[in-house]
């Protein structure tokens, strides 16, 4: 089982460049999330989606955009990279919202450095 | 604003010691989860607690959900170096936050042999 797959694993961007972080899941989960994690810290929610065509902002959405055209894919777009966006980015998915359906499955993360 | 407060932020102990870490909120949880994250990996679910006063055990780990469902604790007995990692609590289901799955800042645990 592939689970949640993120690409790339590592990336260095120059200030002002753009990039898309890819996330795909093969578990037919409705809910998908993007988080960022700064060193030694917890996860901060950037954007989330409750199904194809539906997205909403999390705690720290500024500087990012998302789309959800299919159940499987949830890409995260950085339009004008800034040093403050240097972080590790995690994509996650859950089946639903009832307690028995809320186990979050995470990708391996994308380590992004903006210089 | 951090919805979930975790304490302590960092804990360094010797192998064989016991420890407790905490997760608190001013709001009522509908359910709460504990995850463990190892360096270079994504978090992995340890447990979900749903009912106030609930206690769950996972080998040497004991999870407790407060009676009022505003707090939770994780107790580790006879800690081992393999317990080292970042322990995160997460919650969802508060009406004003809809479908968000929100994490606390975590407790970094280091167990020295």
Topology (SSEs and partners):
The complex is a heterodimer of chains A (115) and B (113).
Chain A: E1 4-7, E2 10-13, E3 19-25, E4 31-37, E5 43-51, E6 54-57, E7 64-66, E8 76-78, E9 87-94, E10 105-106, E11 110-114
Parallel strand pairs in A: 2-11
Antiparallel strand pairs in A: 1-3, 3-8, 4-5, 4-9, 5-6, 7-8, 9-10, 9-11
Chain B: E1 5-7, E2 10-14, E3 19-24, E4 31-37, E5 44-49, E6 55-58, E7 61-65, E8 71-76, E9 85-92, E10 102-103, E11 107-112
Parallel strand pairs in B: 2-11
Antiparallel strand pairs in B: 1-3, 3-8, 4-5, 4-9, 6-7, 7-8, 9-10, 9-11
**How many alpha or pi helices of chain A?**
0
Largest sheet of chain B: 6 strands, mixed
Quaternary structure of the protein: heterodimer
Percentage of residues in DSSP E strands of chain A: over 45%
Number of distinct helices of chain B: 0
Interface with most residues: A-B, 28 and 28 residues
Sum up the overall morphology of chain B in one term. globular
Determine the structural class of chain A based on helices, strands and strand pairing.
Answer: mainly beta
Order of helices and strands of chain B: EEEEEEEEEEE
Q: What is the helical fraction of chain B, as a range of percent?
A: under 10%
Largest sheet report of chain A: 7 strands, mixed
Low-confidence stretches of chain B: none
Unreliable residue runs of chain A:
none
Number of strands of chain B: 11
Structural class of chain B: mainly beta
Q: Would you mind describing this structure in some detail?
A:
Helices cover 0% and strands 49% of the residues of chain A. Chain A is an all-beta fold and 115 residues long. The radius of gyration of chain A is 13 Å and the shape is globular. The model of chain A has no long low-confidence stretch (mean pLDDT 93). In chain B, 0% of the residues lie in helices and 51% in strands. Classes of the chains: A mainly beta (115), B mainly beta (113). At the A-B interface, strand 4, strand 5 and strand 9 of A face strand 4, strand 5, strand 9 and strand 10 of B.
């Amino acid at each position: 089982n592939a689970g949640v797959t993120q690409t790339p694993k590592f990336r260095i961007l120059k200030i002002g460049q753009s990039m898309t972080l890819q996330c795909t899941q093969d578990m037919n989960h409705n809910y998908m999330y993007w988080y960022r994690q700064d060193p030694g810290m917890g996860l901060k929610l950037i954007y989330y989606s409750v199904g194809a065509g539906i997205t909403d902002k999390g705690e720290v959405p500024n500087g990012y955009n998302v789309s959800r055209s299919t159940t499987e894919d949830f890409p995260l777009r950085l339009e004008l990279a800034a040093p403050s966006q240097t972080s590790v980015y995690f994509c996650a998915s859950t089946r639903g919202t009832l307690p028995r359906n809320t186990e979050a499955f995470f990708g391996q993360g994308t380590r992004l450095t903006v210089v | 604003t951090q919805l979930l407060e975790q304490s302590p932020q960092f804990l360094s102990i010797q192998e064989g010691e016991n420890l407790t870490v905490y997760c608190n909120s001013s709001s009522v949880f509908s359910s709460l989860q504990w995850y463990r994250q190892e360096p270079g990996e994504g978090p992995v679910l340890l447990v979900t607690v749903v009912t106030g006063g609930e206690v769950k055990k996972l080998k040497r780990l004991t999870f407790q959900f407060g009676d009022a469902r505003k707090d939770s604790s994780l107790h580790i007995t006879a800690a081992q170096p393999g317990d080292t990692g970042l322990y995160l609590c997460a919650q969802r289901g508060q009406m004003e936050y809809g479908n968000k799955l929100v994490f606390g800042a975590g407790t970094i645990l280091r167990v020295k042999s």
